[in-house]
From TrEMBL:
GO biological process: 'de novo' NAD+ biosynthetic process from L-aspartate
Catalytic activity entry: iminosuccinate + dihydroxyacetone phosphate = quinolinate + phosphate + 2 H2O + H(+)
Protein name per its UniProtKB record: Quinolinate synthase
Gene encoding the protein: nadA
Claim: Phosphoprotein is one of the keywords in the record: no
GO cellular component, one term: cytosol
Binding site for iminosuccinate: 24, 41, 112-114, 129, 198-200, 215
Residues bound to [4Fe-4S] cluster: 86, 172, 260
Similarity-based family: Belongs to the quinolinate synthase family. Type 2 subfamily.
Function of the molecule: Catalyzes the condensation of iminoaspartate with dihydroxyacetone phosphate to form quinolinate.
Length: 304
């Protein structure tokens, strides 16, 4: 089957199955194109919770589908590629976090949604790249334990300096490898360009940014800013929608390394198979789900 035929077949089967197809902003172009909704991790989990459709096909990585299953346990949540993990999420385990908590009993644990359900269950509150600063500011505790992303943690620490921080030393291999030389070169090649960066980038990269935001925040910034050229400090899958929504603007990826292999695993064939078989289904054991849900709900209650 060619690409058009596959996309048509997927759309038809999605209707028959009463399925919502959601895709993260880093998915392959043809996967984003066939989805009902594209967005950042928070927006997609909220859509999954809000929809009245029976089946959610989550084109993203494992922790995202797990968040959907935590928020919407009555729905069938499918992850077309169950092997699509997030290396950063795998850098912390529930046991490791428990051990660190014992050393800092007075700290509040703030866990990035890029984490397993078991780690969320050991946390006090979750955050995403789009609400991390508001979450940190909302907490009465003086001491915050930031898990697992050391770069997001240090970014929050700079923005909310009145707190004391302990950082888990996890990182996103894709964002962490971006080098300052690459940004300096891109800026020299495009002197009028604005640089927007994801908070998973290292602090020296964020120092060079004109705007720091989540993936969906980048669409908003590019749309509303009169500048015509943007250097994009995140995974290159974001280019598809940036270019579609802003045909007169130029978007530059400053490095060849900005590819998340896990985000590229899901193919149209995988989505079709998943809709045909209603597998692989993501579920979370109820005791863990309930505790992880508390951390997610506390986050959702924080005003933006
Ligand atoms: P967003 O929540 O900004 O989409 O980020 C998710 C992610 O995995 C970034 O690497
Ligand atoms: Fe995980 Fe990084 Fe891939 Fe996002 S881009 S899913 S943080 S490895």
């Amino acid at each position: 089957m060619n690409q058009d035929a596959l996309q048509q077949r997927i759309r038809q089967l999605a209707r028959e199955r009463n399925a919502l197809l959601i895709a993260h902003n880093y998915q392959r172009d043809e996967v984003q194109a066939v989805a009902d909704i594209t967005g950042d991790s928070l927006a997609l989990s909220l859509e999954a919770a809000r929809t009245d459709q029976d089946v959610i096909v989550f084109c993203g990585v494992h922790f995202m589908a797990e968040s959907a299953a935590i928020l919407a346990p009555e729905k069938t949540v499918l992850l077309p590629r169950p092997d699509s993990g997030c290396p950063m999420a795998d850098m912390v385990t529930a046991e490791g976090l428990k051990a660190l908590k014992e050393q800092h009993p007075d700290a509040t644990v703030v866990t990035y949604v890029n984490s397993s359900a078991a780690v969320k269950a050991e946390s006090d509150i979750c955050c995403t790249s789009s609400n991390a600063i508001s979450v940190a500011r909302s907490l009465p505790a003086k001491k915050l334990l930031m898990v697992p992303d050391r770069n997001l943690g240090r970014y929050i620490a700079r923005q909310v300096p009145e707190k004391d921080y302990i950082f888990w030393e996890g990182y996103c291999p894709t964002h962490d490898r971006l080098k300052t030389e690459e940004i300096i070169k891109a800026k020299a090649d495009h002197p009028d360009a604005l640089f927007m960066a994801h908070p998973e980038c290292r602090p020296d990269i964020l120092d060079l940014a004109d705007h720091i935001c989540s993936t969906s925040g980048m669409y908003e910034f590019a749309r509303n800013n009169p500048a015509t050229t943007f250097i994009v400090g995140t995974e290159e899958g974001i280019l598809w929608r940036l270019r579609k929504e802003n045909p007169d603007k130029t978007f530059i990826i400053p490095s060849h390394g900005l590819i998340c292999p896990n985000m590229k695993l899901t193919s149209l064939e995988d989505i079709l198979k998943s809709l045909q078989t209603l597998e692989p289904r993501i579920t979370v054991p109820e005791p863990i789900r309930l505790r992880a849900l508390t951390s997610l709900e506390r986050m959702l209650a924080v005003p933006r």
